[in-house]
Amino acid sequence: MRPTTTDEQTLHIPVSIFDEVGSSTLTTADYTALLDREGAADKMDTLLASIKWIFIFLPGATAIHFVLMMLSLSVVSGIGPNDPWVQSMAAMVIFSFMVLFGLGRLSDVRYLKVIAAILSSGIMSAVVYNIAAIFIGYRTFGWAMLLSLPITLLFAQLMKTRIDNEEAAS
After folding, report:
1. Which of 11, 54, 103, 170 is the most buried (most CB within 10 A)?
2. Other C-beta atoms within 10 Å of 89: how many?
3. How far apart are CA 71 and CA 43, in angstroms?
4. What are the CB-based long-range contacts (under 8 Å, 24+) for 68-71?
5. What is the pTM (predicted TM-score) of this model?
6. In this structure, are residues 124 and 65 in contact, taking their beta carbons and an 8 Å threshold?
7. Per-residue pLDDT tens for 147-170?
8. Which residues have CB under 8 Å from 102's CB, separation 6+?
């Protein structure tokens, strides 16, 4: 959609009854700041991207990471739901759509690499923790989930940045 432009340099909006009368010396309003639509649109796009990243991308990536860590705990300990694999895979499909929608690239197949980065980082975190748990035990599992989450989010963001740079270069 093309932004609406005006031919005039100033936009005059009646603020009080004296402005509607005509040539009043009491009040005159000059709204040249309202004509700067491009700056406002850029700010709104940035704000929308930030909101989507915070409220859609982060919860989706966090959920994928936590599901992977909980699957590793249930595999190692043998304690868990009856069939965690089917339930977890179905949930991860939903979380993957959340991540892609949070990035704003739901139809672009190249951004599935971001999902792969989250999965690989979560699996590596689970493997590293399970190896470390041999020596320190499983009492710190909750802290391990929380402390390895920023690494997973960092890998996902780096992959997104890499894909964006490749797109800009071509």
Report:
1. 103
2. 11
3. 41
4. 68/119, 68/122, 68/123, 68/125, 68/126, 69/122, 69/125, 69/126, 69/129, 69/141, 69/144, 69/145, 69/148, 71/126
5. 0.72
6. no
7. 999 999 999 999 999 999 999 998
8. 52, 53, 55, 56, 57, 58, 60
